[in-house]
Write a structure and sequence with these properties.
It is built from seven helices and five strands, in the order H-E-E-H-E-H-H-E-E-H-H-H. The chain is an alpha/beta fold and 201 residues long.
Length: 201
């Protein structure tokens, strides 16, 4: 794991277990936004834990399994309909809030990737810009959120064939844009995001 992981220092402000929180799926034009909350054991040591975007898919899946085997993990999501209604920022905050609330135990505090916290938390929280690269529990949460969302997108790819959702996870690749233009959007597409939005204006 990177030497820059500093969670032990930050978490000293609270007495008790600390949850790391991160989300995946702000940028795609299809699919939900998914968040994870992870409480790691105090003696947690696992080589390779880092920002999920920097980890190859196969390694990320293996790390997610290893994290789930020893950590307290919960996942929350906000639907496409909620993204279109609330906007992606507020939907991401809602997904994070749901992940934290779904934890089977209440943490003493939460470290949240980014520059803001969800509005309603059951415990104190601290936003950490770039936290998925500096905080071990946030990095673990980023891995869980990304692998869980990828699984959901594979399911949506099977439900809506022809769009490649299982390969690009809903991002606006050229292949994806062409499929939307040729086939039209599915219920899994975010109508508030371009180019999907342009088809309804």
């Amino acid at each position: 794991m990177p030497d820059r992981m500093l969670e032990t220092e930050r978490s000293r402000i609270w007495q008790g277990p600390v949850a790391g929180v991160d989300e995946a799926g702000r940028g795609p034009i299809a699919g939900p936004v998914v968040a994870a909350a992870v409480i790691l054991p105090e003696d947690f040591m696992l080589e390779g834990v880092n920002d999920s975007k920097l980890i190859a898919p196969a390694a990320r899946e293996a790390l997610a399994l290893a994290i789930r085997a020893v950590a307290v993990v919960a996942v929350g999501q906000a639907s496409v309909e909620e993204i279109d209604t609330l906007n992606i920022l507020h939907a991401a905050m809602l997904a994070m809030q749901r992940a934290i609330e779904a934890l089977p135990m209440r943490p003493a505090g939460v470290l949240v990737d980014g520059n803001r916290l969800p509005e309603r938390l059951p415990c104190p929280g601290l936003p950490v810009i770039g936290g998925d690269g500096t905080e071990l529990a946030i990095a673990a949460a980023s891995i869980i959120a990304k692998t869980e969302r990828d699984r959901m997108m594979r399911d949506l790819g099977a439900l809506y064939p022809g769009y490649g959702l299982e390969t690009h996870a809903g991002y606006a690749t050229e292949q994806h844009r062409q499929a939307v233009q040729q086939l039209g959007p599915t219920p899994a597409h975010r109508r508030s995001f371009r180019p999907v939005r342009d088809m309804f204006t």
